[in-house]
Amino acid sequence: MPADRRAAISMSLGVAAAVALYGISFGALAVASGLDVWQAQVLSLFMFSGGSQFALIGLIAAGAPGITSVLVAGLLGVRNGLYSLRTAPLVGKGFFRRLIAGQLTIDESTAVALAQPTPASSRIGFWVTGIGIYIGWNAMTFLGAILGDALGDVSAFGLDAAAAAAFVGLLWPRLTAREPVVVAVIAAVVTAVAIPFAPTGVPVLLAALAAFAFAVVKERTAK
């Protein structure tokens, strides 16, 4: 096997192992927010987006309306659809292949794929990372949910307040360039202004809409 493909597999497995561990936190925090084991598992199976999932359970734990929580999580997941524009050439043809690829298109699978030097190693990076994280994330979600369920009142261990910390942990490594920092500041300002006036969960939704509007304006001005 060529060296570039071996390197792609090695990178993919390393990323998959590291990201999958977050699934334990998600499973435990989902139970802490009021979901049962199977509801937590369904979220990981079908939503499969760490940022969206942590945001959803954080809002649920804060008492936000269900529709608001789902809308915020959905907006955060829009970026995965944009990633598919970059990864589509790597996926190949066929309805089922593209359907599966759509589920596996996340931050990490896209980043690993685009970091590879050749089309072949990019394809390997995408599929190995995506499949590896999907399997690991769901397995760790189940383990975390079972552990959280066994603990009972997880608020006694402080896990009920950890969803926000976990979300920040996912966000912080991305604040390495000017644009993400600007978006984060805009979202923070909108949230702070809206908190005194809006119902629980709505400030976060407004912040997500503001960030999305910023991205649209930037894209149009760049043309």
Automatic annotation (TrEMBL):
Pfam assignment, any one: AzlC
Coiled-coil regions listed in the entry:
none
Q: State where the protein is found.
A: Cell membrane
For the biological process aspect of GO, one term held by this record is: L-valine transmembrane transport
Q: Does the keyword Repeat apply?
A: no
TM segment ranges = 12-35, 55-78, 124-148, 154-172, 179-195
List the GO terms this entry assigns under cellular component, sorted alphabetically.
Answer: plasma membrane
Q: Which UniProt keywords apply?
A: Cell membrane, Membrane, Transmembrane, Transmembrane helix, Transport
InterPro entries registered for this protein in UniProt: Brnchd-chn_aa_trnsp_permease (IPR011606)
Q: How does it sit in the membrane?
A: Multi-pass membrane protein
Q: Which family does it belong to?
A: Belongs to the AzlC family.
The family database entries (PANTHER family) matched by this protein are listed as: INNER MEMBRANE PROTEIN YGAZ
- This protein's name: Unannotated protein
- Lineage, top ranks: unclassified sequences, metagenomes, ecological metagenomes
